[in-house]
Amino acid sequence: MTTDDPSAPPSHGAPAGTVDPTAPGRERSGDIIGALGTIPLTETGRTPSRRKRLRMLLAVLGPGLIVMGGGNDAGGVQVYLQMGQDYGMGLLWVLVLLFPILYVNQEMVIRLGAVSGVGHARLIFARFGRFWGTFSVVDLLIINAATVMADFLGLSLALGYFGIPDYIAVPASVVLLTLAIAGGTFRIWERFMVVLVLVNLAALPMAFLVHPSAATTAAGFVPNLPGGVNSALLLIIIAIVGTTVEPWQLFFQQSSIVDKRITPRWIRYARIDLTAGILIELAAALALLAATAFGLAHTDAFGHFDTIASTAHALDRHIGHGIGALVALATLDGSLIGANLVGLTTSYTLGDIFPGMRHSLHAKPRQAPLFYGSYAVLLAGCAALVLTAGDAMGTFIDYVEALNGVLLPSAVVFLLLLANDKAVLGPWVNTARQNTMAGVIVWAVTTFSLAPVVTTFYPDITTHQILLGIGVCAGLGLLTATVLWWRRPRPRRSADRRPTRLEKRQRREQLAESRAAWRTPPLDTLRRPAMSPGRRAGLLTLRGYLAFSVAVLVIRLVQLITGG
C-alpha cells in the first residue's frame, strides 16, 4: 500500500513508501485536488515564484475555511443573536478570546493529520486503547446527533421565515445535503462547501444597517459580566465557547486534511487556510452580535431573546432594510454547513474505528456504502426527530452548545496528549509555548463549565463567591503549571551560557530538516505510551466530572421543556 507521499524520506524504521496497514486506501494517495486548484504529488513546494506559491495556497485552501464556517451553524447564529439581544456588546471580549483558542486547537489537528495520515479517532484508539477510545467516540457520536438535530431545527426556523413549512424544508434539506456528497468527488463537495462558507459574509451588512457605536463596541473588549454573575450568564458564556470551539471540529479537520492528501510539506499553507477560516467565522459572528446589540437596543425586545425567528421579525419591525431576511439566510447557510460537516465527521469517525470500512470522499458511494450510508441515516433520523418534536425543541439549541462547551475539555486533553506523542509526531510535537497555551485553554474551559453546575445547585450563590471560586481554580491551575514546569526534563548543556544567534539558526535548520524527513511509522509497530497512575487518575477524574456536568445540564433542559 502506498503512502500519501511516496517521495517522502523514511521515518525511524518505517520503510519509504509505507504507512499504517489500517490507514485509508489508495483514494487517499496522490495529487491534492482541491476546490481551487491541484498540486501534483511530485511537487516539492520549493519555489521562489510568488504566483506559483499563491496557486499552491489556493489548492490547499479548504479544510480550515470549511471547518470554521461550520462554527456559525444554527447554534452559533442563535447564541450570537442572544448575546447581543440580552447583553448588548458586553460579552464581546469572550468572542475575541476565542481566536487563540480556535487556532491553538485546530493547528494541533493540522499537524496530526498531515504527519500521521490517519484520522483523529484512529489515533486515539491506537495510542490510548479501546477503553479510552470508546469513551471519546461515544461522547462525540452523542453530541454529533444532538448538533445535527439543532441544525435541522435552524433550517426549519430559517425557511419558515420565508414561508416554507417544516414538512417541506427539512426533508428537502436532507436530500440536498445527501446529493452534495453523493458524487464521490472530493473537489465537487469542497467547492459546494466553500461557496456556502463565503455566503457567511452576507451577514456583514447587518453590522452597518444598525448604525453601531464605536465607543460601545470598544467597551465590549473590556472583560465584564453584564448584570452580575448568574447561571443564565454563565450558561451563555459556555454556549459561546461550545458553539465556536466544538469537539467535532477536531475530528473533522484531521479527517479532511488526510482525505485531501495534505502532507507535512503543506502545513504552512494549511495554517493560512485555518487563519482565514477563523477570521471569516468571527467576522460573521461579530455582525450577528452587533445586529441585535444595536438594532434592538432601547426596544421592548431587548433582554427578551426567544427564538431566531422572533428576533428576525423584531429586527424587521425596528430596523427594516431586509435585515430579518439576512438573519434567516445566515441561519440557513450555517445550518447546511453544520449538518453536512457533523454528519461527515460521524462517518469519518466510524471509518476510523472499524478497520476495512472505506471512508473517503474520493470513493464512489458503491465503493464505500457504509461511509455514505451512515451519513444519510444520521441526517434522516435527526430530521425525523425534529419534525416529531416540533415546538418542544425551542430551548434545545442553547443546551446543545453548552454541552459542546462542557465536553470540550475532554476532547482537548486527548488532543494535547497526542500532540506531545513523540512516537507519532517526532519533531512535530508541541513546543513548550504551545503546551502552555493549550493547558490554559483546558483549565479555563473546565473552570467555566463548572460554574453553571454550581449555580444550578446553589441558586442563591453571590457574585463574590462565584468570582472567588474562579480565582481559586485559576490559582490551582497556576500551581499545577508551576509544578509541571519545575519537573520538566531539562536538556544538558556543555556550558552554562545562552546559545548564540548562529546556534539558534542552526537549530532551526536542523529542526526543519528533521521535520521534512519525518512521517509517522505504521501505528501497529509503535509501543503504546504507558498510562501512569497520575495520568489515569486525572483522566478518570475528568471523565467523572464531565459525566456529572452533562447530567446536570440535561436535567435542567428537561425541567425547562416540561415546565418542571
Write a compact overview of the structure shown.
The protein is 68% helix and 1% strand.
Protein traits:
564 residues, mainly alpha, Amino acid/polyamine transporter I, two-stranded antiparallel ribbon, globular, disordered N terminus
Characterization of the model:
There is one protein chain. This protein is an all-alpha fold. The protein has a domain at 31-39 and 55-396: Amino acid/polyamine transporter I, CATH 1.20.1740. 68% of the residues lie in helices and 1% in strands. The chain contains 21 helices and 2 strands. It has helices at 50-60, 63-69, 74-87, 92-116, 120-161, 166-181, 186-199, 204-209, 214-219, 231-244, 247-259, 267-295, 308-318, 323-353, 369-389, 396-419, 422-425, 432-457, 463-486, 501-517, 533-562; strands spanning 32-34, 37-39. Strands 1-2 form a two-stranded antiparallel sheet. A hairpin with a 2-residue loop joins strand 1 (32-34) and strand 2. Helix 4 (92-116) crosses helix 16 (396-419) and helix 11 crosses helix 14. The longest helix is centred in the first third of the chain and has 42 residues, at 120-161. The chain starts with 31 loop residues before the first strand and ends with a helix. The model is unreliable at 1-26 (pLDDT under 50).
* CATH architecture annotation name of the domain at 31-39 and 55-396: Up-down Bundle
Biggest pleated-sheet summary: 2 strands, antiparallel
Succession of helices and strands: EEHHHHHHHHHHHHHHHHHHHHH
> Residue share in helices?
55-70%
pLDDT < 50 stretches: 1-26
Report the strand count: 2
Q: Give the mean pLDDT.
A: 82
**Cα radius of gyration in angstroms:** 24 Å
Termini separation: 59 Å
Q: Report the structural category.
A: mainly alpha
What name does the CATH topology of the domain at 31-39 and 55-396 carry?
Amino acid/polyamine transporter I
- β-strand percent reads under 5%
Count up the helices.
21
